[in-house]
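Note to self: the last two entries modelled the partners one at a time, which told us nothing about the interface. This time every component goes in together.
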Amino acid sequence: MQTTLGQARPRSLTDRILRGRWIGKVLLIVLLGYAVWAIGRQAIQAPALFVEQVKNGLQLGFVYAMIALGYTMVYGIVRLINFAHGDVFMVGAFVSYFAISRANLHMWLASLAPGLPEGLSLLVGTLTVILLAMVVCAFLAVVIERVAYKPLRTAPRISALITAIGVSFFLEYFGALDFVFSPDFITYVRPFPVQVWYIKGGIHPLVPGSEAPGGSILFSNIFIIIALSSILLLVLLDVIVRRTKVGRAMRAVAYDKPTARLMGINVDGIISITFAIGAALAGAGGVLYAIAFPSIVFWMGIIPGLKAFVAAVLGGIGSIPGAFMGAIIMGQAEALSSAYISTPMRDAIAFAILILVLLVRPTGLLGEVEREKA
Amino acid sequence: MSRRGMMARKLDRNSLLFFGGALLLFAVVQVLISVGVLTDYYSTILRIGAVMAIVSLGLNLIYGFNGQFSLGQWGFYAIGAYAAADLTYRWKLHDASGVAVLLMVVLFVGLALWGLGKLLSKVRGLDILSAFGLYLVAVFAAAYLGVRVGAVLTGPLTAALSALPEALASQIVFVVAVILGGVVAGEVAYLFGLPVLTLGSDYFGIATLGFTIIVKVLLDNSDTMFGFEEMKGARGMIGIPHQTTWAWVFVFLLLVVVITRNLLHSSEGRAMISVREDEIAAKAMGIDVARYKNLAFVVGSVFAGVAGALYAHINGFLHPNNFNFLRSFDPMIIIVFGGLGSVTGTVTAAFAWAILLEGVLRLFLPDGFETWRFVVYPLLLLIMMLLRPSGLLGGVELPFLKQLMPPLKPAAKGPQGAEGGQV
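The predicted structure of the combined assembly is written out below.
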């Protein structure tokens, strides 16, 4: 904290008592201890419920990870908090809704080749819907980047930030118009029927309308779809960033723009590609989120977008594994705190965790040491 | 000598013009309101504009002049609003417990913060988290003490206030509530800013955003978790007396403008601006960066609290959704629109914002304009950012508010630096 003049003085009594970091450590340990106690006590009483909450947290965490990656990539490359990202996520959900309910896109394989097993054709159909949302969102993000952000690349950062907020408002309230999406909640149509299984001494399918026996762990094909598709996309992203020429160019641009340009990299093109990839992930996240929580509305992107952004900051913004880790932590924090500590307080708890982590590690869990220009 | 004299005269003329103009503006609007030309609807818009001007001036101090990107302004606004509303609401029921308790809590917490600050300034090598923990413990202890002492003082205070004429007493309670709302926000800001202001710019922004969200969640549960039954949690607090007249709003706005101006023209203000310009260079010049960051943050938050308290008494209704974090972008947008670091621009933009969003757009847009309002508004924002990123009045300032730098003198001519005492 505040240091007095740096002369060597005999240390005062208060100085000796207060030196060291034990007070802060005690504070942290007390807080952590409380959380572990509050969760652990009830987890031991009802282990199945606990596992189920962890599963819910994972499900949320995967969706958050998809959004968080877009935030972290864009931030890493242009140092912009892209507030419109959460709304791109919303657009992804709506695009998939219209594709499913109006165009029956999820049925295309089933209608072309009726002989195929239903599960396979619906899986392909669902993946097609996700792909469509990804493409639309990527296109939207490139348009946003070209129209709104690119002219401001040399302007002060606050201008770009205010612009991002403006784009976010625009997407939301333009989407709220009657002839665009809708100002009301819409019940989302899932592209596949829900199938629930329970685990109790083996995996058994749950017949719709019946109750699972007590103490069993429920999971559904929603969880499987979310987990599989997000892991698939994350691995794909990792391959793109690490193994391809575009990924190498992205890392170079993030590291040093002028030098990257001197090396013959098309910096503007790479920035657009970064926006597109991030938005594609967010679009896929939007579809998955809507499948998990089947009620969509024009402002649905705000809170998940914010949570995902917090996840990106928590893991160290600019770091891709950090964003993934932060998202998983945020998902768990949300699920566990709403189950065991306090449901209405879960947002407050999530942000309190963020502030605490930032105080202990100011650049996030996996963040690199600041090389931001003042 | 003669130059000094000239400067002083010029300053006097400027301030005369400024206060004269302000008085004229106030009188014209007041007359229009009294005559009934400006209906209640329009006067509400003006009062909201003034309230937004106060919040935004606070944020301008934090971000525009001190360079700390804060999205927490709306949280402090909420704190001020609910704190003040609770006092006047209770007084409406002839119960001065709110005033007595909050007064004592604020007093004791202030003493605790001050005393601990003095104590800890002697200590070296204390990390932020430990210091924050100590502050937290001290504040909770002081607040508990304050509640206890306040409960004792409630009876005499109620009796004393009841002895006064009804109208006078309620006005006194209102002013005290507004000031206390500001002070509470300031104390919370001090406590919160202590650790968080050490973060880098974007991280600070996110932490303050988190603060706003936490405050909103706490307000949502104010009746169930904290026992403030009258705040009614997520259902919204009703029955707050409508005491924010144009006159009160104007007085507080003028006060805030003058305080901002004088603060910025003092050596503290120059130290704040130097922190914005270059933190490392400021530190090298012997400026206590942490202290000035905290000073700007606290003063800005006091303004936010005062504005919130005034806002609470305009409509007599508060709802946690008014303090949604999305609204915390409003003051940010206003100060960027008006021009960062321009007091004149901020005040103008705040009024323009209130009038445009509420009033004038209604004339241009057909029915159902509420849905279109937020389509047009971000488009305006985008166009503005693309065409004039420095804000409408960036760099423009009324003569009274402009900083009159003493003319540069050769180094030989005696000590000139006011910064010398800041080490």
